């Protein structure tokens, strides 16, 4: 399940992507518009800034803004940043591999094979879903 932190990060990134051409946005504005607790949002935005997705400007007219194109930011990246591995088993993760304690033979493990397929399809779908596509989907759904 997606953590609240990741869900809030995605919502904040979408909010900033939609306002990319309008300059920096105050944390309080993002928090209010997206119904995210401001203190929690501050930590999330700082993590996103440290990861190279956002930047901030201090003073009048300041706030946070997206420094990557919305087409370049996919859901897999955001999820891994906040929740770690996407896989359901440690033996099928891409960046966080760990051998399962009870496993006798990974090569012939049917359980591992099923969860590897699930992970691969999930990651493929998440990598194919970037901020720009989500914004487009929301626009299309709003027209119906």
Describe the structure.
It contains six helices and two strands, in the order H-H-H-E-E-H-H-H. With 144 residues, it is mainly alpha-helical. The protein has a two-stranded antiparallel sheet with strand order 1-2. Helix 1 packs across helix 3, helix 1 packs antiparallel against helix 4 and helix 1 packs across helix 6.
Question: What Rg, in angstroms, do the CA atoms define?
Answer: 18 Å
Which of globular, elongated, flat, extended, rod-shaped describes the shape? elongated
CATH topology of the largest domain: Arc Repressor Mutant, subunit A
Which parts are unreliable, with pLDDT below 50 for 5 consecutive residues or more?
none
Please identify the structural class as seen in this structure: mainly alpha
In total, how many beta strands? 2
Number of domains: 2
- N-end to C-end Cα span: 29 Å
The DSSP helix count reads 6
Keywords summarizing the entry:
2 domains; single chain; Arc Repressor Mutant, subunit A; two-stranded antiparallel ribbon; 2 strands; 6 helices
Short description:
The chain contains six helices and two strands; from the N terminus they run αααββααα. With 144 residues, it is mostly helical.
Topology:
Elements: H1 4-18, H2 27-34, H3 38-50, E1 54-57, E2 63-66, H4 75-83, H5 110-128, H6 131-143
Antiparallel strand pairs: 1-2
